[in-house]
Specification:
- By secondary structure, the protein is an alpha+beta fold.
């Protein structure tokens, strides 16, 4: 076994079997939840690692090719992948169970109002843990989210932590989406997350055909 580096794989190990098959073993207390999310992504037709085995604190999955180059034609392929992932569903906003980023809880209780879900489960939940001045600003923003976000965008399956480090790329093609924090919600969440550390080209946004006003949101 050899340790892997980068993102949430910093504690994972690469395994090479005698038959040449390459696997990844990832210790995580969220093993069963993460495996279910990866399975949900694969069910949409978007690429994600196939699960080989699960224990309560360990996932073993296929190791996918990755050269780390999210550039050029990879952006066009990512737009195609997201169109598959983000097909509208009839699900409520949220997820079947809560999740966590390490020790930070992520509440996913189902809601029918998108701004209310985002205000309570992604903003107000952090207020007890941050400085008072910032907490006040976030609380004010949460109160006004309905002025900025649509109340009932088509619920799509979201990756939930979609930055470049969680997108596997090989030779200009997306080979897999990893380390998800899935819920159902407005697909603009995944698109916005991509702009936090990466710089998608204009053609990427054009290919997604987002609802008018997405730039302001």
């Amino acid at each position: 076994m050899a340790p892997l580096a980068g993102g949430d794989l910093s504690s994972a190990f690469a395994i090479l079997l005698d038959d040449g098959r390459r696997l990844v073993a990832k210790p995580t207390p969220q093993a069963r939840a993460e495996a279910a999310m990866l399975g949900a992504i694969r069910m949409t037709g978007a690429p994600a690692p196939a699960i080989v085995a699960i224990q309560s604190d360990l996932i073993v999955m296929d190791r996918l090719e990755n050269d780390g180059r999210l550039a050029g034609p990879a952006w066009a392929d990512l737009a195609t992948v997201l169109q598959r992932l983000h097909v509208a569903t009839d699900q409520a906003y949220g997820w079947r169970e809560d999740h966590a980023f390490g020790p930070l809880a992520i509440a996913n209780d189902a809601r029918s109002d998108w701004p209310a879900f985002w205000a309570d489960n992604r903003i107000r939940c952090h207020i007890p843990y941050i400085a008072v001045d910032l907490a006040h600003r976030l609380d004010t923003l949460a109160d006004r989210l309905g002025e900025y976000l649509p109340h009932d965008p088509p619920p799509a399956l979201l990756h939930g932590d979609l930055w470049g480090g969680n997108i596997l790329v090989s030779a200009g093609r997306i080979t897999g989406l990893i380390d998800p924090a899935c819920c159902h919600g407005d697909r603009e969440v995944d698109v916005a997350m991509l702009t936090l550390f990466d710089h998608p080209p204009p053609a990427f946004f054009d290919a997604l055909d987002l609802a008018p006003g997405w730039q302001e949101r």
